[in-house]
User: Fold Extracellular solute-binding protein from Paenibacillus whitsoniae.
Amino acid sequence: MALSILLSACGNSDSSSSTPAASPSAGAAASTAPKKNVSFTIGYATGDPATKQAMADAVAAFSKANPNIKITDLSEGGSQAYLDWLKTKDAVGEFPDLVEMRDTQLFSEAGKIAELPQEWLSLFADAPKLNGKNWTAPIVGTAPQGIIYSKKAYADAGITSEPKTYDEFLAAQEKLKAKGITPLTFGGKDIFHWGFWINKFLMDDVFADDPNWNSKRTKGQVSFADAGPTQAMKDFTELFTKGYVDKGYLSTADNQTASMLVTGKAAELFSGPWMFSQISQADPKFEFGWYPVPDRKGRIVVNGLNTLQGWSISTKANQDADKKAAISEFIKFFFAKDQYTKFMKQVNGIPTTKEKITYDAAPQMQRVIEVMNDPKTIKSLQINSFWGDDQMPPQWRNWFYKLAQDWLVKGDFSADYLKKADVEWDANIKANAAAKK
Assistant:
């Protein structure tokens, strides 16, 4: 079914520009490209194979259309956190000229990225601002995560309908276990994958009701040992302690989870629509569905608000007129209707452009859009996606994910771990403030 997908109500930020949308074709982008030979570097996250391939395809298509512009792709795979990779590149003087930015506030305050050129902003329906400025061109709209499940496994376990409450979700896990089916695969080898479930429960029990919780934590007004965060981490821990997660999770990479699913080694994966293509490629005949996991109040809370993530231009590249022009040509090419439609289809993405984008969406993606368009759906940000006063100390995220690994391995979760989270948060805030002086 041809599905029109528009990102017009996913966030509450004001539109960054009222200029009519530009809609250059790939050919138009090529014809206006600088004639002199120019080169620039590019860097983006490579954790998701489908997105990695879509990015590489876009770069290759642009390079073919613009032979005078050479793009050096610095992106690397592996389990290293993307933030750590960017910091390493910066330390060795290889910070990308055009970079997929996720920790925008951190790098903007460090002077590593520049305010976006005005000509970029006319392309987007909504580009959130930080301190009144636009730092990122949103690559894809925020997509919710949910349960991707094997229809065969559910049928074998006698699960006849998608859970409507969290208790029903837990009951489904028990039914799978009773049939000797491992319920959940989990890519615990990759640090970023830990954020999937951790953020799901934090959004349910904290951010859905208090989106300013982070700033209150920074002021010492709330604690991770409070009822909300404690319940969130109890629910997170329960998935592992009750045997709902495959025992080999610490050695399972995110890019192995699709294989785990289609080969029947697990019945479910908690992830987003970017995995749909990967699963279909692994086994075109594999039948699967997707649904959001309800919280304990019966609400649907998803990661669905616009963020500050997207393409950024480095401060250094912005000061080089030729590089800036070449990068702008790539941005116009990337978001041009033909190319951007291909990208959206590859990643099962939600478009961010003003120009209407339509592509053939699979039933699973139709379900995602249905959830996103439901007025009852509560859209939140993940703990690491807030900015301004609500920004999480960037270095705290991976530290906490590793802390969660620690208590799962030891099997001794308690309030003491959450008190350590408070201490680390405060220490990070203090260190970051001192570094700015």
About this structure: The two ends are 56 Å apart (CA to CA). The longest helix spans residues 415-436.
